[in-house]
Design a protein that fits this description.
InterPro entries: DUF4124. This protein is 51% helix and 7% strand. It has three helices and three strands, in the order αβββαα. Strand 1 and strand 2 form a beta hairpin.
């Protein structure tokens, strides 16, 4: 009975071995495969190498030069574009800040209608929640606009 597992182990081990091929395409991308059909024209790796299933990190290519036919923008034109963008963002920010003030005012007015323990009732909370959600939305929009304005040169 003890010989059966040993015999199975000895028979299974040759099946676990496979030829591994390293293929490099025209772009320099490396692919490892054990498929003989894909392995044509590829280099067979020796059997004594350690194999890892963790993919290597992608290659970081050096900065690509700008193609000669790439459209260029004159510095003055780019500055004008940036100024226009800044004005648009500042106008959107002012609009969002005004909308936030109105939303906060609406929440305060609605909360003022209810006294003490009545404020904690689920029905009251359900009525107030959409107003609070509107306040949060305007706050997130203001935060995003300020971040975008901070990213401008």
């Amino acid at each position: 009975m003890r010989t059966l597992p040993v015999l199975l182990l000895l028979l299974a081990s040759p099946l676990a071995q496979a030829q591994v091929f390293k293929c490099v395409d025209a772009n320099g991308a490396v692919t490892y495969t054990n498929d003989r059909n894909q392995g044509r024209g590829c280099k067979q790796l020796s059997d004594d190498q350690a194999v890892s299933s963790v993919p290597s990190p992608p290659k970081r290519s050096s900065a690509q030069p700008t193609p000669s036919n790439f459209p260029r923008v004159a510095p003055d034109a780019q500055r004008a574009r940036d100024d226009t963008r800044r004005q648009v963002l500042e106008k959107e920010l002012a609009t969002e800040e005004a909308a936030l003030a109105e939303a906060q005012k609406a929440v305060t007015e609605q909360e003022g209608r209810y006294q003490g323990a009545e404020r904690r009732l689920p029905v009251v909370q359900a009525r107030l929640q959409p107003l609070r959600d509107t306040v949060e939305l305007h706050q997130r929009n203001i935060e995003a606009l300020r971040k975008e304005l901070g990213n401008l040169k």
